[in-house]
Amino acid sequence: MDYVIEMLNITKDFPGIRANDNVTLQVKKGEIHALLGENGAGKSTLMSILFGLYQPDSGVIKIKGQEVKITDPNVANEYKIGMVHQHFKLVHNFSVTENIILGLEPKKTFGRVDITYAAKKVQDLSNKYSLKVNPYDLIHDISVGMQQRVEILKMLYRDAEILIFDEPTAVLTPQEIDELMEIMRNFVNEGKSIIIITHKLKEIKKVADRCTVLRKGKYIDTVDVKNTSEEELARLMVGRDVIFKVDKAPFKPGKMVLEINNLKRTDKVNLSKSLDVEHLELREGEILGLAGIEGNGQTEFIQVLTGLKELESGEILFLGQDISNLSIREKSALGIAHIPEDRHKHGLILDFTLEDNIALQEYYKSPFSNNGILDRGYMKQYAKDIIKRFDVRSGKGELTLTRSMSGGNQQKAIVGREVARNPKLLIAVQPTRGLDVGAIEFIHSELIKARDEGRAVLLVSLELDELLNLSDQIAVMYEGKIVGSLSSEDADENKIGLLMSGGNNVGK
Amino acid sequence: MENKHKSARERFIHYFSDESNRRKLAPYISILFGLLAGLILMLLIGQDPIKGYINILNGSIFKGLFEGNFRRLGGTLAIATVLTFTGLSVAFAFKTGLFNIGVGGQMLFGGFIVVLLGNVLTLPKPVHLLVIVLAAAIGGALWALVPGILKARYRISEVVTTIMMNYVAMWTVSYFVRRWIPGHYETESSMIKESASLKFELLTDLFSGSAINLSIILAGLVVVFIWYILEKTTFGYELKAVGFNPDASKYAGMKVNRNILYSMIISGAIAGLAGASYYAGYTNHVKLGVVPNFGFDGIAVALLGLNSPFGVVLSALLFGVLRTGGEYLNAMTSIPKELVDIIVGLIIYFAAATLLIQFMLTKLIKKMKKNDEKHIEEKVVE
Ligand SMILES: Nc1ncnc2c1ncn2[C@@H]1O[C@H](COP(=O)(O)OP(=O)(O)OP(=O)(O)O)[C@@H](O)[C@H]1O
Ligand SMILES: [Mg+2]
Asked: I need a surface site. Which of A64, A436, B197, B251 has the fewest CB within 10 A?
């Protein structure tokens, strides 16, 4: 069998941790090869090595049987390797075309950049693979899904034959995911090869031919996806059985925790993000799911609720008290915790240690500090407890800079920080984005536990499965309005899907 | 692997495999490279580099030291004190996410207030000193306030506004000195009163009449104080958080704009203290039409000190040695003063390139590891 890519016995050390330990990955031409592993298993590291961002400490890389040294991404380009990173690398005030040709600009006379030529080429590529990208759009005007396609076009523009996708579906809506799968199939039909990292076993089953599993930096196995069930995949990856269905106690709602009336906010730039929420309520011991297609005002709604954005008018009652004019700090002190949507922008101070990040919401009060003096001893011990309880994996424990942690473990640290505060109201926005199935299972059980203890949970998620599994009540947001609300018994994928697309109003 | 039997080489590799260790060592290598570059330079213009460096050390520390004359050392410490303040001012701003390159102007304005009050007030010495030191801090803070507000409210880059304020300070000071406290010469203010001078007889005598003064004690206190604020208090925690990530700080309920303003004001206040140290401890008057060099040197001091308060002290001492030793070198040999400036400049240059040096270390370690692997393989083959 001839492989296009062979990574043989790759080992890579970071301070305090062996990210890849004698890992082997062999990719056939024209296949979609999935890379599966827990958070921190070393998937991104392995792909960064293939793309020339890191050098392996030992091991060999072969392309079409030839041993090669990929010293930097330019070399990777020459070998026709392209990569879409977990976090995109685009210049936001540049156009699509300008981003794509960056570093490879076609020239006219006097060294002027030939934008029209480049834009045409981009348009052709976009048409060929039905990516529906407009070459002249500015990046900050287009959706995350479209931005990803720009990243894909960047690879195509450079004639990449081997395409690496690092968690491409984490940021996409279900429909965008389907389209991406279709695009990927087109690529392999053309003879390109794809390596995809994803935590979603369904997607692997749907699109991948073979799957290589890593666990704690070590190579476990490579399997044919056709002959392997989701459960088996999960077991290979975690090393134990994973329970997909969550058990919860019967729904016993208590006092009203959150009640929202006539909340309004106009977004001058993007009208579809304006908010007009007539009524929404959430009680103790209840998980309220907020469903909706990305970009229908959920982000803004949560930001208004938590105080990150100002509201125009309306009433937000928390345990009977109007909190619409309180500061973020005051709301947090009342017992509202918030797992933010964007972990790098809001959730973490990447240049702080894990210890400092875990104290981020409570550093100012006892026992984290007394009279303005930090109690380092307590902070350290507290961080250690969270790390242990939430299984946050990193090189140097509480002293690790969060920047160097894997995406999923950063997320676990945030979830840990917020859940451990035992809030009265927990606002969880995409709490399991980028987590492995084992970690998802755990976070879900923590959310259920919070609910069963009588806390109120507002869960925002793009994943219908997650919402249907956890929620007692599901509200659907469409263009800034709550267009329907269903109890978990009544809800199913179809009804919610219809509401999400602005279909018609059912429920109340 | 047993720890005891590791060779020096293995230990070397192990130590530098950790990025934070590479970071820690980089400044020393910077200094070494800078000194080496100076050595080559002296060779090139036909001077004896050994003699050159001995002269620098003599001029800054050792001349007369063993005969009980501490004058040289005292002078160096006085300069190092000023540099500690300016370096700390820059480092504090850096640590809290601001690039304050207007330390020179803030120092000048703080110093101007000191000289003004040192001229016009008549007070008993302890009170007078307390007043001018406080006034210096306030003066420096005031000068940083404008860039601080512009940054906090309108997100205007402090890099531009602070440096502009340097020139505003220069001309403002010139104008008011000429009106209120003109000196003997057109280009100077008049001298401050004895009661406002930070010179302290006991200290001056101890160091054989050198420029060393009470501000050295103040510097020590301020360094410890700033370290304490940054590492041990919730206030410092907030300032750093806002510097690294304003969005996440807002999410955590911090008052972002207020913290930016505080950072700028504190940085300015430390710069103002540099003014007290220099103008009330060293020169006792203000020169007109110049922004003191200490401001820009402070940037280098901070870089070389890795922005840590104690690191700043060490690197200020080094810069003090080079500055005062350089003057002596110039006086004693035919090596021109410019050359001394170039050597100092080279060290600064290498200090700024600490990142490059970290990178080089990384490469070196990799190479050594590769070699080791080869050896092992060869052994296996044998
Ligand atoms: N630049 C770095 N410096 C230090 N440690 C690092 C660095 N990059 C990754 N690591 C560590 O290496 C391990 C593997 O990280 P990696 O990002 O490859 O995980 P991953 O499998 O992609 O996980 P996830 O699913 O959470 O994205 C983690 O424990 C991480 O803390
Ligand atoms: Mg990853």
From this structure: A64
